[in-house]
Amino acid sequence: MKEKLLNLPFYLICLGLAFLAHGVFLYQWTRQHYMIGINDGGSQMLPFKHLLYNQYTNGEFFYSFDFGLGAGTFSELSYYFSTSLVFLVSVVIVFALESLHAIGSPDVLFWANAAVWINVIRLSLVLFITARLFMYMKITRFPALLGASIYGISGMYLRHATYWEFFADAFLWLPILIFGIEKVFREQKPGWFLFAVSISLIDNFYFSYINFLLAGLYILARLAIRQEPNETGWLKAVAVFLVTGIIGFGISAVSFVPAVYAFLNNHRPDFEQEIPWVDLTDNILFTSRFIVLPAIFVLFLFCFSLYRHKTFRLFAVLGIAGTLLHFSPVAASVFNGFSAPQYRWEYFLSLVAGGTVAAGFQHIKTLTRRQFAVAGVLTAAVYMFAVWMDQIFDWGAQSTALILLSLLLTFLLTLAVLQFKQPSVKVLLAGFLIVSALGFANIYQVEKILEDGRIEHVNKDLLTSSGYDTAEVRGLIEAIHEREDGVSYRIDWMEGVRNNTPIVQDFRGLSAYSSILNKNLLYFYLYDLQIDMGRESVSRYATLGNRANLHSLLQGKYAIKEKGDPNVPYGFTEMMSSENYIVYENGNPLPFARAASAVYSEQQLESQPAIVREHAMLTGIVLDGSEASAALPAAKEQTDAFEVQEAEATFRDGNLAVSGDTGGIDLVRSDSAFAEGDLYVSFRLEHISPNKGFPLTVNGYETSRKANTSIYRTYVDDITVRIPAEDTIKIRMPKGVYQLTNLQIFEEPYNVLQEQSQKNTGLQALSIDGSQVNLSYDNSADEKYLAVNIPFERGWKAAVNGQEAEVLKANYGFAAVPLSEGANDITFTYRPPFFYLTLSISLFSLLIGGLYVFWSSRKTRI
Description:
Elements: H1 2-21, H2 23-30, H3 40-57, H4 73-76, H5 85-99, H6 108-136, H7 141-152, H8 155-163, H9 170-187, H10 191-203, H11 205-224, H12 234-251, H13 253-264, H14 295-301, H15 310-326, H16 329-335, H17 347-362, H18 369-389, H19 398-420, H20 423-451, H21 460-463, H22 471-483, E1 490-492, H23 501-504, E2 512-513, H24 519-528, E3 540-541, H25 548-553, E4 556-562, E5 572-577, E6 581-586, E7 593-596, E8 599-601, H26 610-619, E9 621-623, E10 636-637, E11 642-647, E12 649-652, E13 655-669, E14 678-687, E15 694-698, E16 701-705, E17 718-724, E18 728-748, H27 751-757, E19 763-769, E20 772-779, E21 785-791, E22 796-800, E23 803-805, E24 808-810, E25 814-818, E26 822-830, H28 835-861
Parallel strand pairs: 1-4, 8-9
Antiparallel strand pairs: 2-3, 4-6, 5-6, 7-21, 10-18, 11-13, 12-13, 13-18, 14-17, 14-18, 15-16, 15-18, 19-20, 20-26, 21-25, 22-23, 22-26, 24-25
InterPro entries: Uncharacterised_YfhO (IPR018580)
Organism: Planococcus glaciei
Transmembrane segments: 6-27, 77-97, 109-131, 166-185, 205-225, 237-264, 284-307, 314-335, 347-364, 371-389, 395-418, 425-444, 834-855
């Protein structure tokens, strides 16, 4: 009981340290600057919090038509916040405050303001939990707090919490996981390990993967370096870990399985660049963005007599192993699922460094001055080597000065501890080390995050200005909402490169940005329809390339453009305007649900150009794997009507060498008969340069292509661009060497679209309520199928007139159902993939886990 009563003041100390660790960011907060990354922080973290909070507090937990063209948020946003325990607790607290009218309705700006406070609270818990772990391992309170500070008050915590806030949750679960491992070894009690496995898998499948790899390393080291004479034998311990781990997986099934399914149903090109085994360029003693090892840790590693103590030996060995792994991009790739190397796992190195320091500090008095002298010389040599190896070392940086001062004072105070043998000097050393960690954390915030990461620009002005959330555009969107009484219209608008603008500005748009997206939609954009998004990049889709057919098919009823922008889709006319923007309305809208009997197969259309596929979706329905029942639609190819002319470039046999600052080819038409409609210009373009991206323009249309070495490259080099009908097509790119092949030009007079838009629709009623869509359709023409604008993904169920119906994949990325003749009442319902099965497994596993823990507890007492 006494120990429990001591927990509160000890936690308050941790809370105070967490506040001090965020000193710079707290000061920035008083100036309306936020602890949010300027790119992913503003483009993903804030929008997703805003979206999920609105969903959860309105009783919707599974699906949203406000996320891109529609998505299962429970599974696809599991990588972010949909199952994050920290976020869910935040939702409960914020909703309670909102219900009590203590705060207004939370918006994106609210979550930006709240970020630093959430990170402070989380860090206080990290410090408290980690210190308790070290104390359980028989390290006294003060050294345990010192070790926890080295773990939590680190650059990586601040980096994760700022740029990708959900990453920082892993700092909580790793020490709990290791605590669970220690409970199995020391007491044969699996309860904490079961809890840690379950909570990790529920919280975030990606970091549970990383944490389990790290836990595996820890278990291997633990089997080799026993801590207690009566510990659980290795065979029994491994059996406990396996059984408990399986039960933990079962408990998490309702969250983990849909998340993994979403990950597998995502599309991202394979990382094809060579990954070296060793890379020594990162200076982890001075300038690393990921982790900077404290001087006391390096010094203790060379105090060889400390290795007699088992706890020190365990953490030191893991610290050395972790340091070596840090310099291996292959290891970074393994921790990132064997993809591009990502240095996100080094919080483990911070943890074992903290454990090394805590255990070493506890036994510091056992060192002799001679042992210290040897360790000091070796430490100084390592630091000099780090400076010599660093080709861009900055002697004038604030962090350099602090690290060198810390190194000197660490030597002096450690020597004083050994010389005077006084507790007060030892306390002085520990206090200095904690203050150094706090000082470095705040300097890291200034140099690595505010300045290098440009976070100093993330303020209220940015989040309410052009490029993020323009008030002028918001006014236009509100005017559209007031004018519309439908539930399915979409607006083509995006602030700059912020693909999640629709979430921020509360409208249904045509763009999305997330590390996990529906593969069917990505294929629809990248391969099936070759929709250029104005910017090549993975993990996103955007707009519809100003292609009128696609706008009509996907309810793109409005487009907002800056005044003077020539890229207005065909058939769109000005509806309203403001000082800088114009709202255009689609003159050829199509309904949310369309019936068809003409069936085209994806295989039938495989070699056809994008315009033919558009016409197939307009005149019928495209099904995957079905037998075609209709002849292919016609397309007017006019490639031969255009003559190729060089423009500050040489073009021979598909090889294009641009000699001017900007050049390319002109396609000049000799016959000017076609004047009404658009041209579809398709070609394959590859840049013969390993490390340089470039802009590409086709008449008034602008897009950009990634460097060949970019990890964000799509590797999709087949491009289709829609432009208004012109006699001359100018394709331009910067000076360089390219391959330009497979050139095709098609006319699109939009006869097919206009004919389809004038047809009477059988859609009688439509309601969309999150994960349920209800509609009534009068199939008096006895059509065979009904295609709906619901993105196809596993989890959708359908009922037609009360009878279960098969949900088909139609039009490359959307859903359809078979129709009955006459009136059809149709209900679509979404639940995460395998939801009811995994829910049953979770409940059953929870029961089994409770019985297993109870049985294990009784057995150890007996």
